[in-house]
Specification:
This protein is an alpha/beta fold. The protein has a domain at 47-223: NAD(P)-binding Rossmann-like Domain (Rossmann fold, 3-Layer(aba) Sandwich), CATH 3.40.50.720. Helix content is 52%, strand content 8%. The protein is built from 19 helices and 8 strands. It has helices at 2-13, 16-30, 54-65, 77-96, 102-112, 136-149, 165-172, 203-215, 231-248, 252-262, 268-275, 277-287, 300-306, 332-344, 354-374, 381-391, 401-408, 410-421, 432-440; strands spanning 47-50, 70-73, 113-116, 127-130, 155-158, 178-183, 192-196, 219-223. It is globular.
Length: 450
């Protein structure tokens, strides 16, 4: 009885899962330690949101739920009304979950939300978040106008997922007021907020971003500027590892199953179908001109998009969706495209065990995370862990990619990367940081107090 209970208790205390869960708990608090922490934030009593699409509506919903009045702008009346309807639906969901009364919902929609086609109305906002189409030309135009209409001292934020915040900031004519506030979809539910600090962002603009995140009950993580910031940059890299395994013989369902066995709620192909394949397609097209000649490129997803198969929204993507489809069924048209691409590349498909799939996927994730850390894009390993715990569904019982990396050790990571480099030396490169860690006998956790 009690003796067995005591033994089981100590078994839990000594388990790696316990250490990982404690690390995950403290990660949420550690990310608040930023260089600008002592600077008082600017006052924010009203926010503006540019763009009433899915993301803009989600951001507006989050602000309303936090008690912030919102000015919502769009280019046309139809888009504006669609955005208002989305916000109303989001708030209705909060009522059903017991987070809001029906009376408060009506009050927010009628009094706190101001939908308008007048861009100049944003002049009344203390902080403006742009959530328009992911195109640099569009964003530069918006910020040039914002620089003229926003009040002095207003913080101007872009919700871009990948684009250069420095270039966007310069377009405003007041780069000290500009930063990135990268929300994750659905923005009124997902807890992560990447606060992207550009070269000329003022310290009090940064602390204002962190203060907003706290008010919205989100976990803010400071990021430097690079393509994709912390999370999407790393995700782009490990997603390539999944695509390479796909072309070399693994199926989408095999890869997804292996990653879900590790503890992720969904594997990469199921996630793509949920988000929409067209989102990543737009990013790949943007990068096409600068893609290195040495890099392997897998065209399967591009061909699915060219055929109008964008995932759940179209009923077909990597998998099939709709009436009569039970469970996870691979799209036969995808399978045909995959077979054609394998033949064109002269590849004889080989078998991948679930262990090998997980090993490649996680090594790719960790290696790019090490480069993000080495370049100073992330302040500390624990910041990267927070990004993946709160924004990408990394299983809490593994603590985050950098905490998990420490369970392998620098030498073990290097051995794995060098093993895979024998088949693709361009993709599988050992980060210099890992080599230094192996030489010095240090761990990622040693860097968390800086």
């Amino acid at each position: 009885g009690l003796k067995r209970e005591r033994a089981l208790f100590f078994e839990c205390i000594e388990s790696p899962q316990r250490a990982a869960l404690i690390h995950a708990f403290f990660a949420e608090r550690a990310v608040a330690r930023i260089p600008e922490a002592g600077t008082p934030p600017r006052p924010v009593e009203r926010i503006g949101v540019i763009g009433a699409g899915t993301m803009g509506s989600g951001i507006a919903t989050a602000a309303l739920l936090a008690g912030l009045p919102v000015i919502l702008t769009e280019r046309d009346a139809e888009g504006l009304e669609r955005g208002r309807a989305t916000i109303a639906k989001n708030l209705e969901g909060a009522v059903k979950r017991g987070k809001l009364t029906a009376e408060r919902r009506e009050e927010l929609l009628s009094q706190a939300l101001t939908p308008t086609l007048d861009f100049g109305a944003l002049g009344a906002a203390d902080l403006v978040i742009e959530a328009a189409f992911e195109d640099m030309g569009v964003k530069r135009d918006i910020f040039a106008r914002l620089g003229e209409v926003a009040k002095a001292g207003a913080v101007l934020a872009t919700n871009t997922s990948y684009l250069d915040v420095n270039e966007i900031a310069e377009a405003s004519g007041r780069p000290q007021d500009v930063l990135g506030l990268h929300f994750f979809s659905p923005a009124h539910i997902m807890r992560l907020l990447e606060v992207v600090v550009a070269e000329k962002t003022a310290a009090d603009a940064v602390t204002t971003g962190f203060a907003l995140a706290k008010r919205l009950r989100k976990v803010a993580v400071r990021s430097g500027v690079c393509d994709g910031f912390i999370g999407n940059r790393i995700m782009t890299h490990y997603r390539k590892a999944a695509d390479y395994m796909l072309l070399d013989g693994a199926s989408p369902s095999e890869i997804d199953a292996a990653i879900e066995e590790f503890g992720f709620a969904m594997g990469p192909f199921a996630v793509s179908d949920l988000a929409g394949l067209d989102i990543a397609w737009a990013s790949r097209k943007r990068r096409a001109a600068t893609r290195p000649a040495e890099e392997r490129y897998v065209r399967v997803a591009d061909r699915l998009c060219e055929a109008g198969m964008f995932g759940r929204k179209t009923g077909r993507g990597w998998y099939l969706y709709g009436e009569g489809v039970e469970g996870r069924v691979e799209n036969p048209e995808m399978q045909k495209i995959l077979e054609e691409e394998r033949r064109a590349a002269g590849i004889t498909p080989r078998h991948f065990t679930h262990d090998e799939i997980r090993r490649r996927y996680l090594l790719a994730m960790i290696s790019e995370a090490a480069r993000v850390l080495e370049e100073g894009i992330a302040l500390r390993p624990i910041d990267i862990d927070a990004v993946f715990l709160f924004g990408y569904g990394f299983p809490r019982h593994h603590g985050g990619p950098m905490h998990y990396a420490d369970t392998i050790g620098a030498e073990g990571l290097i051995t794995g990367i060098e093993e895979f480099a024998r088949e693709d030396a361009y993709f599988w490169q050992v980060p210099e940081l890992l080599r230094r860690m192996a030489a010095e006998g240090t761990r990622f956790s040693d860097m968390n107090n800086r």
